[in-house]
């Protein structure tokens, strides 16, 4: 028997059939577009998600015959408003969208200090990606669409409804909507009247939501787990199972997370409600692989070409700040912008590319510091997974900048593996998370920090932080 993991990410939908030991039997990927109809806007068409999934499942073909359970995960801080039949009333507003910054600031002012402390895992503000900000914007600027809206769905919730006929959310991916008790927060209606009632019923991510109906080309009658956000699934797929475990999910953005004992927390990072004995603090940046894709296009090459050039770069003091569209953790500042700095007459494409790799790693280091403070421990090493982990060079750069060994997982598509873990838990294939992670997550290679790089990169990180602080006011 096998498991099917589905990961609806920012740039593509991935589906993989996995054996009980986590090895890949078959996999397929279909890309989808992000539309940017106005400055600061970033939207996706759910029809593209569905057609991509159907095509991916069709490619898997006979490999689906042995599947006995399905797990889902998807991008979060992307919001979809639908009518009662599940039909979208407006395109999905993605996590990269910054149009709601102004309305978000006004909503924060409506909350009491006590309620602010509960917003988004303790961050204390309503930001541009908060669901209430998206709802308020839609009500003000697209009133006809808002009048039809009855449901607020994460992409995973919408996909689950298409596959099973039932819309169910989970507390982990209902960011900004769920209070510490795991139910929709009472203060939501203070921000946008009626918003609390738009949240779907909530259930544990590793419980069965329903069975497939035959939609999408899947066999009917397969149990489907409720699922959760792509980052949380990737944490499972990266091996988080006990306090002290840490993961860097190197995707479109970087997501770092550390598991800890109960309690803790720190400004700028998200502290998730406990789930099955796991207490996780996490910090998502705004740009990771996205910054490399942008830089390659700007320099007239492709990602493979820029990585090849960066591997041969000469020593250079060039810095790159990857905040091309603002920053999330730990700064939560949508006005920040990206920069190349410290260029000299010997700086060429190779050095610019190397600066991008190091700049993304510096952003990850900036997140790791408050994460370790929140967890009240020092991560001895990090698992690394995601598309960015496929580059040996970038893994080594991150190990050097973070000054931590990185253990790359054999299955770099950790989201689909984590989704499969949730499916296995939901149908009782194992007693707990630890047992499944031990059985399904394997290490491909370890990258050890190079001590010869320590002084240079510590100095570079100090300059990176100073430059970020000095340049930020210019773009506010």
The total number of structural domains is 2
The best one-word shape is globular
Radius of gyration: 21 Å
CATH homology-level superfamily of the largest domain: ATPase, nucleotide binding domain
Please work out how many helical segments DSSP would assign.
15
Mind summarizing the main beta sheet? 7 strands, mixed
- In percent, how much strand structure appears in the residues? 15-25%
**Model regions low in confidence, pLDDT < 50 over at least 5 residues:** none
Terminal Cα separation, in Å? Answer: 55 Å
Structural class: alpha+beta
The helical percent reads 25-40%
CATH topology of the largest domain: Nucleotidyltransferase, domain 5
What strand line-up does the widest sheet have? 14-15-13-12-18-19-20
Annotation keywords:
kinase, FGGY family carbohydrate kinase, alpha+beta, Nucleotidyltransferase, domain 5, ATPase_NBD, FGGY_C, 34% helix, 20 strands, 5-stranded mixed sheet, kinase activity, 476 residues, 15 helices
């Amino acid at each position: 028997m096998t498991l099917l993991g589905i990961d609806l990410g920012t740039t593509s939908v991935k589906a993989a059939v996995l054996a009980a030991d986590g090895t890949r039997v078959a996999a397929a990927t279909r890309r989808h577009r992000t539309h940017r109809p106005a400055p600061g806007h970033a939207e996706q068409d759910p029809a593209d998600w569905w057609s991509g999934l159907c095509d991916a499942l069709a490619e898997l073909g006979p490999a689906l015959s042995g599947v006995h359970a399905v797990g889902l995960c998807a991008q979060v801080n992307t919001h979809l408003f639908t009518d009662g039949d599940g039909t979208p009333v407006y395109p999905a507003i993605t996590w990269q969208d910054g149009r709601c910054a102004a309305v978000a600031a006004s909503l924060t002012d409506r909350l009491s200090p006590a309620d602010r402390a509960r917003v988004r895992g303790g961050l204390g503000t309503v930001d541009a990606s908060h669901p209430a900000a998206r709802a308020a914007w839609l009500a003000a600027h697209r009133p006809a669409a808002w009048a039809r809206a009855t449901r607020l769905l994460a992409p995973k919730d919408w996909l689950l409804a298409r596959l099973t006929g039932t819309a169910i959310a989970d507390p982990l991916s209902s960011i900004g909507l769920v209070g510490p008790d795991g139910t929709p927060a009472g203060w939501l209606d203070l921000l946008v009247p009626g918003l609390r009632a738009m949240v779907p019923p909530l259930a544990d991510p590793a419980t069965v939501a329903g069975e497939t109906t035959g939609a999408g080309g899947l066999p009917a009658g397969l149990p489907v787990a409720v699922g959760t956000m792509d980052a949380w699934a990737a944490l499972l797929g990266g091996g988080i199972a006990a306090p002290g475990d840490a993961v860097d999910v190197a995707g479109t953005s970087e997501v770092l997370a550390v598991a800890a004992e109960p309690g803790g927390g720190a400004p700028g990072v998200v502290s998730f409600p406990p789930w099955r004995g796991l207490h996780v603090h996490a910090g998502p940046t705004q740009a990771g692989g996205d910054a490399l894709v942008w830089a390659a296009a700007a320099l007239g090459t492709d990602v493979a070409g820029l990585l090849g050039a960066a591997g041969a770069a000469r020593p250079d003091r060039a810095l790159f700040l990857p905040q091309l569209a603002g920053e999330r953790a730990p700064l939560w500042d949508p006005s920040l912008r990206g920069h190349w700095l410290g260029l000299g007459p010997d700086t060429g494409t190779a050095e610019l590319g190397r600066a991008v790799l190091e700049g993304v790693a510096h952003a990850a280091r900036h997140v790791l510091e408050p994460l370790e403070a929140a967890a009240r421990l020092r991560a001895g090493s990090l698992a690394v997974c995601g598309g960015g982990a496929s580059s040996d060079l970038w893994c080594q750069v991150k190990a050097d900048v973070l000054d931590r060994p990185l253990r790359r997982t054999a299955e770099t598509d950790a989201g689909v593996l984590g989704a499969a873990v949730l499916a296995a838990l939901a149908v009782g294939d194992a007693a707990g998370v630890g047992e499944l992670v031990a059985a399904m997550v394997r290490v491909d290679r370890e990258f050890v920090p190079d001590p010869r790089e320590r002084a240079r990169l510590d100095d570079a990180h100090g300059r990176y932080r100073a430059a970020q602080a000095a340049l930020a006011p210019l773009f506010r």
